[in-house]
Amino acid sequence: MSYGLSPLRPVFALPLSFSVMSAPTLTDFVLANTTLAPVPLVPEVVLHSAAEAMDLWELTRHDQPPFWAFPWAGGQALARHLLDNPGLVRDRKVFDLASGSGLVAIAAALAGAEVVTANDIDPLALAAVELNAAANGVTVRTLGGDQLDSDAHGADVVLAGDVFYDAEITALVLPFLARAAARGALVLLGDPDRAHLPPGLFTARARYDVPVPLTLESTETRGATVWRA
Questions:
Q1: What CATH number does the domain located at 16-228 have?
Q2: Whole-prediction pTM value?
């Protein structure tokens, strides 16, 4: 779910102490602050998840919540949909935008994707993706940095779970998704009725009731839709 942007865009950067951490140190931080647990809507997948959002957020000293430490509603819905419909990704190259914990990327790999790339600008997210992929016995490539000006590296399928949480992010993500769809990629989105989901641009494929952390969503269940661009 987490995404950040180039110097001309809003930057959601880790404080210097995290941004210069080596990969083993990032991995240690994730392991020290999470517990391996099944995803509520997708129990086939286990993730290193945090018990308390606010405590971990304070530890990271980050402008945004630790998106990598929780299975967000949009990602859960999209992951469930991929596992229930593996033909969407089987034997195809997949790009997961704003991967966060890697839940959606892992689901794509479990569903039989040929190659899965998980992109996120947060180094802690990339560390979490690698740990979570290993815990689920799948291979997921990680790619850091802002990729919104790319063509998703030619992926056959482009996935995005819960990316419409901010108006500025939405305005920058939409052209990326539109370019992928225009060149023939299958673009699938998971969204729990976030305020910035553009109306009329996508076709609904499925709807799920998703268990979510009360401290993050102010409710224990959210409805989430899987959309196709």
A1: 3.40.50.150
A2: 0.89
Residue ranges per domain, the chain? 16-228
* 99-135 confidence digits (pLDDT tens): 999 999 999 999 999 999 999 999 999 999 999 999 9
Average pLDDT of the chain?
Answer: 89
Q: Residue 186 has which token pair?
A: 């299958």
Distance CA 153, CA 217 (A): 33
Q: Please give the share of the chain, as a percent, with pLDDT higher than 90.
A: 76
Backbone phi, psi, residue 16, to 5°:
-55, -40
pLDDT tens digits along 23-63: 679 999 999 999 999 999 999 999 999 988 778 878 887 77
